[in-house]
Specification:
- The protein has 259 residues and is α+β, with helices and mostly antiparallel strands.
- Helices cover 44% and strands 13% of the residues.
- It is built from 12 helices and 5 strands.
- It has a 5-stranded antiparallel β-sheet.
- It comes from [Actinomadura] parvosata subsp. kistnae.
């Protein structure tokens, strides 16, 4: 667990991460630059509403907003519960419905650290035959996709996939400052050489992946859907990755069902 640091130091770190000056933040948040300076240097302890206000303008994730609040001496305001919590039953059912509705094509839901939350039956394309140790909870899909014991050996365009995923994870680390993601990034970088980064557009919404499955080569592109939730950490961090057939052969094979 990270050591607690003063709220001003944490806010300054987020401001630097967003490449904003104190004046930039002050203008965006409609507060004085002097007040921003006093908060960052610890001369002023911000109120709960001010912490939330500045965090909103800095685009701080809900999990980290709670950390800012605690550092300022306030109670967290954003709830975090496991997806299996009874209070999230309706949300879980909604995600499950999205996954089922995508069949016979693969779809899965992950959290912000790429841990698998839910998957439809067709996602077996990726889980089949991987090292059992990698399927011990929590199953991490970034690790599973790039680890030599995962499904990486079955990916025919692995260099291209690595060239997309590793820089994407690096950007996520830079954006969030999450130490667990940082450790994951260092880990996956040990699995193989990185190809040149894949351009953000158009592959951010159409990453091709060619994977061998039971003697056939299947080709997919993927899209990611996130759900905004103003007051719930768990729901804010859910992402649904849906895989679509990139050719008619793949579509026909999956519609018939994997034998």
């Amino acid at each position: 667990m990270r050591q607690d640091r003063p709220v001003g130091e944490l806010l300054r770190e987020w401001r630097h991460r967003r490449k904003l000056s104190q004046l930039d933040l002050a203008i965006q948040a409609d507060v004085s630059a002097r007040h921003v300076s006093f908060v960052e240097t610890g001369r002023t302890i911000p109120s709960r509403s001010m912490v939330i206000h500045l965090a909103e303008h800095l685009g701080v994730p809900l999990r980290e907003r709670n950390r800012l609040l605690v550092a300022a001496g306030h109670a967290p305001v954003y709830r975090e519960r496991p997806l299996a919590d009874p209070d999230l039953a309706a949300a879980r059912e909604a995600v499950e419905q999205v996954l089922r509705g995508h069949e016979p094509f693969p779809a899965l839901a992950v959290d912000s650290r790429w841990n698998l939350l839910l998957a439809n039956a067709a996602a077996e394309v990726f889980l089949d035959g991987v090292d059992a140790a990698l399927l011990e909870p929590p199953v991490n899909m970034m690790r599973l996709g790039l680890h030599p014991g995962g499904f990486a050996p079955r990916v025919r365009n692995l260099a291209q996939v690595r060239g997309f995923l590793v820089p994407r994870l690096a950007r996520q680390v830079a954006r969030t400052g999450d130490p667990e993601l940082s450790a994951l990034l260092e880990e996956v970088r040990q699995y193989g050489e990185e190809a040149g980064p894949v351009a953000d557009a158009p592959t951010d919404i159409a990453l091709p992946i060619r994977i061998e499955h039971r003697g056939r080569e299947l080709c997919f592109f993927s899209t990611i859907t996130t759900f905004g939730a103003a007051f719930d950490v768990t729901l804010e961090e859910i992402a649904v990755e849906a895989y679509f057939p990139a050719d008619e052969q793949t579509a026909r094979h999956l519609r018939k069902g994997v034998q």
